[in-house]
Design brief:
Length: 161
Amino acid sequence: MKVGDGGVRVEAMGPEEVDPKGVLLIPGGSGMRALVGNDRWIGQLASLATRSPQVMTVCTGSALLAATGVLDGRRATSNDLAFDWVVSTGERVDWIRDARWVVDGRFRTSSGISAGIDMALAFVEDTCGSETADKASMQMEYIRNRDSGYDPFARKRVLHS
């Protein structure tokens, strides 16, 4: 599927089909929980993540990446509602609870779905410039949060849990 004028291709595929030269995007959601315990799948993901120049996770996708071990010693975040479970999948990761998204080298993790959009737009800005990221935001009619350290939902969820 082609997206936008830039010719970006977005494809969903299994780990054995992914070209490691592209950006690896790992989504979250309830369907991925079973994969954390699937050693074969996690091994394939670890291989891909090791070879990919940029790796991004949205929501609980960071649990999958943490289970591979490639986030050990790195900073990362995840969805606030599942945060404690995600932390249990990677105890050597420096988990940042109150971040909207975290960048640590070639790894980018976001706390939730809209935070994933902000993280992706920040990546576009870093790689293609602010004008391109602003244009993408306008085309989506999306009000962008540019502050990776500001997650208004983290504080509210901690207070209400």
